[in-house]
Each structure stands twice: as structure tokens, then as C-alpha cells.
Design brief:
alpha/beta
Length: 233
Amino acid sequence: MNKVSIISGGASGLGFEIASLLVKEGKKVIILGRTNDKLQRACEKLKKSASGVVPEAMMCNIGNECDIKKLGDYLVRNQMLVEFLFNNAGMGLFVKSYSLTSAMVDRVFEANLKGMILLTSEILRMTPLEEELTIVNIMSTSALIGRAEETIYCAAKWGARGFTEALRVELKGLKRNIIAVYPGGMRTDFWNMPGQSRDLSAFMDPALVAEKIVNAVVLSDKMLVTDITINRR
């Protein structure tokens, strides 16, 4: 079996930076996303810095169960065993609570909560119990505190945090490491939304945040970190 690391939302921002560090360490990586052109550009960049491995990109809407099953079938067919799963995909929504619609709720929950649950479930299902699996759920500091105009986003992230904590209890005693990551604001495309204008100059560099996560999760073989909160100074 070939060991692989999977990163949802891996074509840009924090996900891409994590993938970049992993391939430099010689880890086989598959980045997931919903836009093929963006994925392929990211994959070509990763190939330039890869150390003895060939990174892959796969179109996958993690909120779509059919896409998730296709991913699982691909991994089985190619005898790939997931070593690290980085649940990184997500999207924001910053509006007044009185303007929320059903479509908004569905979109935000699919990206931030439903997708995490479906992808995690599929990887757990196909990973033999005797094999070690590390699941890294990258959320947000909005999973820890409430914020004005982020009501539905906070609700989704608090749900993701609840899922993470319950998963930890359910899998206790097995070869399953569940790590929760709560990063603050970063300078990424996450903020590029219609009608949104923010000064990101004081926000964190995603490359530096990725370094903190990979150092703690992947490169530390003597200790297990369970919760990581990363804030700007």
C-alpha cells in the first residue's frame, strides 16, 4: 500500500502551503478542489518542489457524496492508504443575520461542516484498523468565539468543532489521531467575496501558519498535539 496525504481545499491558500511543505518532505499528496484549472496549476507548482514524489490533484466537491465515493474508489483501486487527512476546505459568509436565506445556510454548511463529515467518514471506512490515521480538522477561531455578521459561519464551525470532539471520543483507544486546528485570519482568497472589502495587511501569512501545523502534526514523532490555536500577534 502506498501512503498518501489528502488535503481538501488544497489548490490555494493554507491548503496549498501545507501540500507544498509535505511534498518537500517526500510525502505523497493528493489535493482536492472543485475547479480543475486551479487544481492543475497548483499541482504543477507542487511538482517543482516535490522531493521524490509526484503530487496529484483531483476534482472533488467534498459536500457531494458521489464525489466522495469516487475518491474512495480511486484510492482503493490504486492501493493508496491515507496517512494524513487535512480537512481544510471551507468558505465564509459575512452578512447580517436578518438577511440569511436557506441557500446561504446550505452553501456554508456544505463547505464547512457536511464536507468535513463526508470526507472523514469515507477515509475512516476504508482505513484498516491496524493502520494509523491522523485526521487534522482545520477550522477557525470562529469555532471558539461568536462574531457579529458571522452567525451562520460560526454555526458551521461550531458544528465542525462538535464533530471533532465527538469523533475523538468515539475513536479513543484506536490508531486514530484527531487534531483540531483553529487559525485566525490569513491573507488568502477566502476573503475575496462580492461586496466584501477588508484590510488584510495585519493578517497572517498562510505559509507561516502551514509551517506551524506541519511541524506540530507531521514532523513531531515523539509527541501528539491535539489542539492548535494560531493567532496573529
